[in-house]
Amino acid sequence: MPTPHEEVTKSDTRLDAPVLETIGLTKHFPVHGSRTRAVHAVDGIDIQLLRGKVAALVGESGSGKSTVARLIAQLLNSTSGVIKLDGMPVKAHAGRKFRRYVRNVQMILQDPFASLNPIHTVRYVLGRSIRIHHPKARKAERDELLKGLLTQVDLVPPERYLDKFPHELSGGQRQRVAIARALGATPKVLLADEPVSMLDVSIRIGVLNLLQNLKLKFDLAILYITHDIASARYFADTTMVMYAGQIIERGPSERVTQNPAHPYTQLLIASAPDPDQLTGRDERPAKGEPPSLITPPPGCRFNPRCPFAMERCLSQQPPVFQVGDDQEAACWLYADDASVDREAAFGARA
Ligand SMILES: Nc1ncnc2c1ncn2[C@@H]1O[C@H](COP(=O)(O)OP(=O)(O)OP(=O)(O)O)[C@@H](O)[C@H]1O
Ligand SMILES: [Mg+2]
């Protein structure tokens, strides 16, 4: 007989089940003119997106973040791996199955100007989303839904914005329209690929706060893709760090950003806010460049740049090691028999 407490735990577990999950998600793009060579853009990614939580995917340019989002959005075929929505594996690239999937999993892109057709008004853009996702709604109901969408993204009074074209709106307002269009589908999951990086710094926080409020209001699971690990700390519940197609560290955002375990995350934080210009803690440039994704380095892909690289890092890919309670890192420094080197790394974490 379960105690009342056990019953609560069980139902919590059910509520905590990921809305969307990827297992071993992989994408190798064929290299033009070669049968054997491929760009290893995404290699064996496991992601869990939970209701009412933001998970950040952070990494420098070319690490594979957008490819992950496009795979999850089913805009790209994966090379291997599984995507599960509500626990059910889904492969949906066209037709009714794809439309049903898209209703649940919506995407917001970096450049709202490019994602909104310049010849259509806000009324048309949102009206179309409502017609697609609420085909049975009558005209009066559609009008209400339309105004409701604009109100949800704080474009009020809605009448002021309905007949505007994208070029008549500010960048922040355009991104709000793109978010409203996504909400028109009443999704469970939002994939936000650098949603504020094209916006003026002064309005970024407003758009992130809006996403935060929508997350709470609609229990949305959000994948927040960003270069900016500092914004991940502010906005995301958990943070995953991606390097050369793989996730090399993950954990609660506070821990990953305050106490990074992987040497790459340490460099990323030391060089914030521009992780594309990686510099060490002593401001010397980090060794080397991001690796070739056609012939990634054997062993740990970060080994050519890693200040702590050991013999085994050059030949053996590190498994994921638990680092403290909820934090994990794919780094040999955290193997049980690497105590000396781990000390050096912990020193860098202090
Ligand atoms: N359609 C494609 N064909 C071939 N290679 C591709 C394709 N799309 C992406 N790539 C490659 O995959 C790798 C990952 O690209 P991706 O756009 O996912 O990186 P990203 O982390 O989003 O970078 P950024 O921060 O610059 O947006 C890159 O090396 C890129 O050149
Ligand atoms: Mg990208």
Report the count of strand segments.
Answer: 12
What Rg do the Cα atoms give?
22 Å
Please identify the structural class as seen in this structure.
alpha/beta
Indicate the proportion of strand residues: 15-25%
Average of pLDDT: 88
Number of helical segments? 13
Q: How are strands sequenced across the largest beta sheet?
A: 6-7-8-3-9-10-12-11
Helix-strand topology string = HEEEHEEHEHHHHHEHEHEEHHEEH
Helix content percent band: 25-40%
Q: Which segments are poorly predicted (pLDDT under 50) over 5 or more consecutive residues?
A: 1-13, 279-285
Overall geometry: globular
Please report the distance between the alpha carbons of the first and last residues.
Answer: 48 Å
How is the biggest beta sheet arranged? Answer: 8 strands, mixed
Bound molecules: adenosine-5'-triphosphate, magnesium ion
